Amino acid sequence: MAEEKKSIDPAANEMIERAAARGISTAFSRADETKPCPIGRAGNCCSNCFMGPCRFVGKTTTGICGATRDTIAARNFARSVAAGASAHSDHGRDLAFILLATAKGETQGYEIKDVTKLHRVASYMNIPVANRSKEDIAIDVANEAIANFARQTGELTYLRRAPQKRQEIWRRLGIAPRGIDREVVETFHRTGEGTDQDAEHILDHALRTSMGDGWGGSMLATDIGDILFGTPTPLITQANLGVLKNDEVNILVHGHEPSLSEMVVAVANSQEAKEYARSKGAQGINVAGICCTSNEVLMRQGVPSAGNMLHQELAILTGAVDAMVVDVQCVMQAVVPLSQQFHTKIITTSPKAKISGAIHIQFHEGEAMSQARLIVWTAIDNFPNRKEVHIPQFKSDLVAGFSHEYISYMQGGVFRESFRPLNDNIMNGRIRGVAGVVGCNNPRTIQDAGIIHVIKELIKNDVLVVSTGCGAIACGKHGFLMPEMMENAGPGLREVCEAVGIPPVLHMGSCVDNSRILTVASAMAIEGGLGDDIADLPAVGICPEWMHEKALCIGAYFVASGAYVLFGIDSPVEGSVEVTRLINEGWEEKVGGRLEFEPDYDIIVKKALAHIDAKRKALRLEEYRPERYAKRGDYLPGDALPSAVYREGRYSLKS
Q1: Are residues 453 and 556 in the same domain?
Q2: Total of domains in the chain
Q3: So what's the pLDDT on residue 623?
Q4: What is d(CA 289, CA 323) in angstroms, rounded to the nearest whole number?
Q5: How much is the pTM?
Q6: Is residue 36 assigned to a domain?
C-alpha cells in the first residue's frame, strides 16, 4: 500500500520523498515520530507554577492550587493570545522606530515611499498635514504609533476606524484596549497562579488583548510598512520550489519582517552584485521568499515565493539555496543542522532571534544597506560550494498585492473609490458573501489540503475569498490566484470577477495584513446596505491549518470585531466544555462573533455557507439563487479572455 502523501503540492512530495530516501529528518517525518501530548493538546495541563505541572486526567478535577479545568483552559488560551499579540505587535513597534529614524535621516537605504498613505494614516491619528514636510508628519505618526504600545489609559488610536456601533460595543463591555503592551502584561499577570480564576473574565481580557494586536500592532505594522516600502498594487509573479534557479545565486528570505529583506532585494538587483556573482560563475542573483517575509517582498517587489512555512526545509534539500536569511517567527531550528548536510548558509538577522550554529549578522536600520551587501556577498561566495542540485520543476503564476486601498480603487477609480459595487453585488446575490481564508501550515495534517479544499468549495458557491499568510502562498502554488480559476467559481462571482478583472481569490499580504481584512470589513459596514456593523456582514473567517499562537490571536480579534471564525485541526480548549461554550455561544451573545474549532473541512464549508445565508436573511436580502446568473456571464469555462486581460498590461510583471 502506497504511503499517504504529506502534501497536495507535488513539489513538496518530491522533496519529502528525497529526504526519506536519504534518511533526512523533516517536519513531516518528525510529526509522525513525535506524538502530541493529548492532555496538553486539549488544554488540560497547567504549567504556570512549579507546584505542577498539573494534568487533568482520570479523577483529577482541580490542580494543586484548586484551579478548575475551566480556569486552566481559559488561562492557557489567553496566554496563547497574548503571545500571538506580542509577536505581531513587536513587528509594528520595530517599523514605527524605523519610520521615526528614517524621518530624522538616521537610516541607510530607507525612504518614505508612499506619501499619500502617510497623509491617510496621519488623518486617522488627527495629525495635521497641511504645509508640513513629509518628514515632520512622519515623526508625529511614528511617535503616535509608539505611544500606542505604552499607553496606560484611554484607548488605542485606531479603534476609531471601526464602525461606530462596534466601538460602542467595546466600550460598553469594557474591553476596548488601552495600550498594546499593557494588555499583554495584564494577561500574564491575570493568568499566573492565584490571580484571575473565573474563566469568562479571563476570556474577556483575551479579547481585549487580541484587539491590541488587530486594531493596534498589526494594523500599525501594515500601515507603516506601506509608508516605508509602498502600498501594494496587483502584480504577477510565481510560487513554489521551481522558482529556484540552477545557474544563479539563490537567496531565500524567510520570517515575517520586511525591514532587511527589502534591502537585500535592492542590493541583489544592483549591477555591482550581479557582476560579482558572474565572477563566481553564476549567471545572476535570484531572491525568493519563504513564509510571510516572502509575502512582504512578493506583493511589493514581485519577488517569487519558494513556498509557505513547511517548505523551508524542502528548499534547503534542493541543494540550490546558497543563503537562507531569516528574521523572526516560524523559522524552525531544524534548518541549521539540515543546512550543514548541504552547503546552505543560514543567516540570522534579528537581535531577538539567534539559532545555534547559524551565522549572525545583526540588523540595524542605520547600517541596513551595508548589512544587506554583506549578506548578498556571503551568498555569492558560497555559490561555488554547491554539490548535487535537485530543483522540482513545479511553479505557478500568481497575481498578488490587493491592498484594501487597491480594492477600493478598483471599484471606483481615483476619484470615486468605494466599496459600493462590492456591497451591491452581495445585495443582488451575484456574490453570496465574503470569506477570509488565512493562516498557517501544520504537518499534522496534509499540507495545503484544507486551505485549497475550503477555498475551492467557497468560490464554487459564489463566495469571494481573500487570503493572507501561508494560506495565500498555498493559493499561489496551486494556481488559485490567477483568473483561470474563474472556471471553478460560481456564475455570479465569475461575472463580477471578469467585469472588474480580478481572480476569485485575492492575495492581501502577510499574516499581519489580516488588519487589511479588518479595514475592508469596516469599509463594507460603513458603506451601507449590509447593516452598520461587521457583525451584520455575510462574511466568515477560516483558518484551516493553524498551528501558531498568532493564529489564535487573529481569530480572537476577528471575533471581538463581530466575525464568525472557524479553525481546522483540533481545539486547544477541547478539555473544557464551559470554555468551548464561552468562546462560541458566550462570545456571540457579547460581541456578535464566535469561535469554533472543526476538524472536518466539509463541515467547515457547510457552517460557513449557513452563516453567510443566515446573515443574508437577517439583512432581508434576496435568497441566494445561483441559477439566476448561470447563463448571464460573459466568461464561461474554457474561454481564454481572463488570462489575456492580465497579460495585456493591467498588472505589472515583476518576476
Answers
A1: yes
A2: 3
A3: 86
A4: 11
A5: 0.94
A6: no
